[in-house]
């Protein structure tokens, strides 16, 4: 079966649950700092679960726990989970940051792909 959602993605994702800290302003303009877990990661982004609703296009601070990686990230996607009230937030790293959690090889067009 064709998975349209995965085919729309620009980079491959790896399902890794890593502890991270996300900090910034929520959709109400209130500052927050959340310790959470990634849903998946790519060379230039990650999805995380948050209790806060964020604004698409806003910038947050993203830092891993357990290994040294931190960067600013822009909110690209927000999906509400009506059962839990939480949000899955897709983040794209800024500042040309590349997450070192997975060894990525250079692919076509300058994009990174799994080795």
What's the SSE blueprint?
Elements (H helix, E strand, L loop, with lengths): L3 H5 L10 E7 L5 E12 L2 E6 L8 E6 L5 E11 L6 E7 L10 E3 L5 E3 L1
Antiparallel strand pairs: 1-2, 1-4, 2-3, 3-6, 4-5, 5-6, 7-8
Keywords:
115 residues; mainly beta; Thrombin, subunit H; six-stranded antiparallel β-barrel; two-stranded antiparallel sheet; 1 helix; 4% helix; disordered N terminus
Structure description:
Helix content is 4%, strand content 48%. By secondary structure, it is mainly beta. The chain has a single domain (4-114), classed as Beta Barrel (Thrombin, subunit H). The strands form two sheets. It has a six-stranded antiparallel barrel. The chain has a two-stranded antiparallel sheet with strand order 7-8. The protein starts with a helix and ends with a strand.
Q: Determine the N-to-C terminus distance.
A: 25 Å
User: What is the string of SSEs from the N terminus onward?
Assistant: HEEEEEEEE
Radius of gyration: 14 Å
Report low-confidence residues grouped into runs of 5 or more: 1-7, 106-115
**Arithmetic mean pLDDT:** 83
- In the CATH hierarchy, the architecture is Beta Barrel
Please tell me what the overall shape is: globular
> At the first level of CATH, what is the class?
Mainly Beta
- Kindly give the count of domains: 1
What structural class do helix, strand and pairing data support? mainly beta
Q: What is the helical fraction, as a range of percent?
A: under 10%
Within CATH, the superfamily carries the name predicted glycosyltransferase like domains
Provide the CATH topology: Thrombin, subunit H
How many DSSP-defined strands? 8
**Numbering strands along the chain, what is their spatial order in the largest sheet?**
1-2-3-6-5-4
- Helix count equals 1
What portion of residues belong to β-strands? over 45%
């Amino acid at each position: 079966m064709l998975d349209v959602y995965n085919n729309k993605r620009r980079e491959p994702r790896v399902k890794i649950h890593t502890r991270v800290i996300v900090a910034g302003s929520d959709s109400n303009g209130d500052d927050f700092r959340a310790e959470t877990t990634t849903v998946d990661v790519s060379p230039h982004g990650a999805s995380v679960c948050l209790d806060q609703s964020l604004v698409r296009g806003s910038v947050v601070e993203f830092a891993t726990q357990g290994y040294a990686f931190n960067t600013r990230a822009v909110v690209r996607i927000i999906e509400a989970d009506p059962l839990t009230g939480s949000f899955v937030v897709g983040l794209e790293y800024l500042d040309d940051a590349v997450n070192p959690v997975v060894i990525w090889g250079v692919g076509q067009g300058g994009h990174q792909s799994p080795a």
